[in-house]
Amino acid sequence: MHKLVILGAGESGIGAALLGKKQGYEVFVSDGSAIKDLYKQELAVNHIPFEEGHHSWDVILGADEIVKSPGIPEKTELMKKVRERGVKVISEIELAWRCSKDASKVIAITGSNGKSTTTAMTHHIFKTAGLNAALVGNIGVSYAKQVATDPADYYIVEVSSFQLDDIVDFKPNVAILLNITPDHLDRYDYKMQNYVESKFRIAMNQTKEDYFIYCIDDPVIREHLAKKPIYSTTIPFSIMEQLKEGGFIANDQLNIQVNEEEPVIMSMYDLALKGKHNLYNSMAAGIAGRTMDIRKEKIRESLSTFSSLEHRMEYVATVRGVDFINDSKATNVNSVWFALESMERPVILIMGGVDKGNDYDAIRELVREKVKAIVCLGVDNRPIHEALSKDMEVMVNTDNMHDAVSQAFNLASKGDVVLLSPACASFDLFKNYEERGRSFKDEVRAL
To answer: Residues marked as binding for ATP?
Structure first.
């Protein structure tokens, strides 16, 4: 019997365990930390053995195959031993794809920024067209859990570089690569090229029948494609130039031209989501819909009715003429660049948290141009002060959300925007970016 060991009992690990069990594998789950009660119940109900707080080396190293949580770095003692023993390691998306590839189509979306928005928007297009599509991956239910419990005809999957690092045969019918900017470099030996190659793994098994949709305006993507061509049918999108095929802007209109069919054309001003970055996201999602023969009327309708995600440029409230926007999902500098770039009014910026070796140079110009004051929210705010104090006269330190929101409100005048866009991970003060965003919204509503 195939022995499958799952390392890590988070959302993806539990999904992999349920799917492995359904496939008739002998499944064992091992987590070096405590497992959440909810997940423990799920394992118990499904009679899946597990351990927490430690790893049983003999069981793990005796596996036929290991599904590794995307959060476990290769540097750990555990992974070094696994690699030495030569046990096959795959990611949860590999397992899910293997068990669903014959009965469904997969649209996989990656990029340093905009993945969640584009994934949700693509799902909205497929649902609007009446298709049986599931929204899975980093954004909600794990891909494996969906395959195990409620299979769909189409899987719209948000994938991270960490998940792509452990694929073997994973081959999406449509792959979208939105952009590549420095992020998580600590996991890639601080080498940008390693991170770039990790992102491009999304297309490594694709053939001519598959589509690779990419941003031709991104210099890192362009450079990599020039050096290492890929085998799928490529469809670019751009806001800088007009293209023969793909997505582009002309005369304030969004154009999507795929496979010599009649183009989808709609006014930029009819798009539900505003800002330059959302033009890219809308084009990528629209092209994905067209590759799967969704009618152009449905694509236009979807792109004009999509509502934005929680914690991603989410409008919270207006208090005495000051707008509050929750962009807690902005966990890197580039996300903050996109947020500031779309701002039309003066900004009080709340930022800070666990700094992943951020280079704040990218946002200095926008900070000078659009930000009135910065409220730092974190245990250690020094990196932000060192990087931006020359560009910003007013900088305030806080170490809890209540103070951050009230300080920002005091610094704002009528017509300003208070923007929570942290540029950092949240685990110094919060469990995750969702908790940080909800805390922000609670404090705003209490003003």
So the answer is: 111-117
